[in-house]
Amino acid sequence: MDPSERPAVVFDNGTGYSKLGFAGNSEPSFTIPTVVAVNESFLDQSEQCSSANWLAQYNAGVMADLDFFIGDEALSHFKSSGLYSLRSPIRHGQVNDWDTMERFWQQSIFNYLRCNPEEHYFLLTDSPVSTPESRECMGEIMFETFNVPGLYISVQSVLSLSAGFAYLKTLSEDDSDSVSDMTGVVVDIGDGAPHIVPVVNGYVIGSSIKSFPLSGSDVTQFVMQLLQERGELLPPDDALDIARRVKETYCYTPSDIVKEFKKHDSKPSKYIKQWSAIKPKTGVPYTIDIGYERFLGPEIFFHPEMYSADFSTPLPELIDSCVQSAPIDTRRALYKNIVLSGGTTMFKDFHKRLQNNIKKIVDERVAETNARHRVEVNPVEVNVVTHPIQSYAVWFGGSVAASSHEFFECCHTKEDYEEHGASICRTSTVFKGMY
User: Fold this and answer.
1) pLDDT band per the 50, 70, 90 thresholds, residue 187
2) Fewer CB within 10 Å: N-end or C-end of the chain?
3) Sign of dihedral through CA atoms 191, 196, 201, 207?
4) Between β-strands 30-33 and 36-39, what pairing exists: parallel, antiparallel or unpaired?
């Protein structure tokens, strides 16, 4: 059977979580932590064996290559056994350990999706600021190790934008280009390396990409820090995991932080939540109170100086700066379509606060221009687009793209790789626009 007649495999590998599935589906088949647990004892045996005992050294090396786990299984083995060490192949949105990344893909393909990679085309996602060498390594592993028939490496922000349009189009009866036009600003905030990426007619304006230093992992760290400073007794081994669950379950974005403090102080019993669990080692139950942490966690995107003195530019100002650095004839269209992507943008009322703050910045600039030049500038529409699939928008965009007939024509094939080498994967078509 021709591989192009089978659904393509779509991988969206993020710093915190990876989404795995097949093209044409509305949601990923698996969403798992991007971690690998490796048995260090076999690695130690391989290093300690003398060169004369080559058979023992070889066997230890083979076992080290076989005895590893990924995702939730990796976390479970790491906690329950002292033999395994935890490795994260992706840091700040970039792959920094290709051997571990290859192992993660191996388990994803054979143990989770249970498919033959030689019978499916693959779509992988990549950061908008990753290097050509990174894409080349992706191609080399996919074609050499897994022998895939075809590969396409897509920029995450473009897939997020297409996912937003695809979802909104299902809700709209309007089939005009206004719904499907690929122009907008993608605010992608996951567990690592947030980026603000302007896209015009499907092409990324590379010179206007902005990076924000705080991500979902920083919110988790801040929540944990606040709980510990307030005297809550968190089990050391589970402190970070508890903070992450508190973030995902209870955190929200207030419209005004001062008013929110007053609300909590006036009726603490109404707003304070409790988290109950059992200590993994002793089996003793415990309970912690969750108060200000509920809204102070997400607040670092609007007041980053609360968490780090190294960066003081709020997210709304950075988005405005991104749009202002784009070509002048694209700015109104970009303000009109600011698309959120990533699980960290799913906080309650996050989009409302973001839209109000950006609108305030833009309106002040328009008012200043009117007063200075004595002209009447038309108001600028600011719209932050939100939808229920923000947490896996990149994967969904890849699913939509890989289910089209044009996808197979855009892929690099095994024949192309054998003729030209991994360099065919170095370039990305979405950066080849007029801007």
Assistant:
1) very high
2) N
3) negative
4) unpaired
- For residue 177, give every residue at least 6 positions away whose Cβ sits within 8 Å of its Cβ, in sequence order, or none: none
Q: How crowded is residue 253: how many other Cβ atoms within 10 Å of its Cβ?
A: 21
At 41, is the secondary structure helix, strand, or coil?
A: helix
Domain covering 216-301 in this structure, CATH number = 3.90.640.10
Q: Of 49-63, 165-179, 374-388, which range is least confident? A: 49-63
Of 144, 143, 101, nearest in space to 122 by CA: 143
Query: What is the rounded CA–CA span in Å between residue 243 and residue 297?
Result: 10
Whether the pLDDT of residue 174 is over 60: the answer is: no
Beta strands 195-200; 210-211: pairing state: antiparallel
> Which of the four pLDDT bands, split at 50, 70 and 90, describes residue 429?
low
What's the CA gap between 39 and 65, in Å, rounded? 9
With 80 as the cut, is the pLDDT of residue 272 above it?
A: yes
Helix or strand or coil: residue 196? strand
Integer CA distances (angstroms), 73 to 40, 90, 98, 290, 418, in order: 16, 18, 20, 29, 36
- CA–CA separation, 434 and 276 (whole Å): 55
- Give the C-alpha separation, 40 to 128, whole Å: 34
Fold adopted by 175-214+314-390: Nucleotidyltransferase; domain 5 (3.30.420)
Listed by start position, the domains of the chain span 36-87, 175-214+314-390, 216-301
Q: Which two tokens stand for residue 323?
A: 């749009």
| CA atoms lying within 13 Å on the CB side of residue 40 | 9
The per-residue pLDDT for 203 is 87
Contact 257, 299 (CB under 8 A): yes
Cα-only R_g, the chain: 24
Residue 199 near residue 205 (C-beta atoms within 8 A): yes
- For residue 381, the cross-strand partners are none
